[in-house]
């Protein structure tokens, strides 16, 4: 019975790593109209629609620009992954260590970004 319990604990260690993965997440970014220039932290990343991989180590400012439209800025936030608390019940110290080492203690939100760009308004003369 103890062996079975140890096996279950070992298999479930790192709950956040198991549920959230151990690599940085891909964020899908779309816009209306499509073809908006996309930059993350002022670094060009192509045009929408796009999938970009962002680090879980910090939040990210995504800027979208398109000729004839107002620029838009969206923040992808870094939040505590609630699955980390599964380690308190199941994985124990080993699970917490696995999650911290794989940087799975945090997740990014939202994981899909869609921006409706607003047309520039004409200024009266």
Describe this entry's structure for a reader.
This protein is of the alpha+beta class. It has one domain. The protein has 3 helices and 8 strands. It has a 5-stranded antiparallel beta sheet, with no helix packed on it. It has a 3-stranded mixed beta sheet with strand order 4-1-8, with no helix packed on it. Strand 5 (60-65) and strand 6 form a beta hairpin. Helix 1 (2-12) packs across helix 3 (86-101). The radius of gyration is 20 Å and the shape is elongated. The N and C termini lie far apart (83 Å).
Give a short account of the largest sheet. Answer: 5 strands, antiparallel
Number of domain units: 1
Which word captures the global form? elongated
Multimeric organization = single chain
| Unreliable sequence segments | 4-21
Q: SSE string, helix = H, strand = E?
A: HHEEEEEEHEE
The secondary-structure class comes to alpha+beta
Strand content: 35-45%
Number of helices: 3
Record field, number of beta strands: 8
Helix content: 25-40%
Give the termini separation: 83 Å
Mean pLDDT: 78
Task: Please give the radius of gyration in angstroms.
Answer: 20 Å
**Spatial strand order of the main sheet:** 3-2-5-6-7
């Amino acid at each position: 019975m103890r062996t079975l319990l140890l096996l279950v604990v070992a298999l479930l260690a790192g709950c956040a790593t198991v549920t959230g993965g151990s690599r940085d997440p891909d964020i899908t970014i779309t816009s209306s109209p499509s073809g908006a220039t996309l930059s993350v932290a002022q670094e060009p990343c192509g045009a929408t629609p796009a999938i970009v991989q962002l680090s879980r180590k910090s939040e990210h400012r995504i800027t979208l620009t398109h000729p004839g439209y107002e620029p838009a800025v969206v923040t992808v936030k870094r939040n505590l992954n609630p699955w980390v608390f599964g380690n308190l019940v199941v994985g124990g110290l080993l699970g917490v260590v696995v999650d911290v080492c794989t940087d799975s203690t945090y997740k990014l939100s939202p994981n899909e970004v869609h921006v409706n760009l607003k047309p520039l308004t004409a200024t009266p003369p």
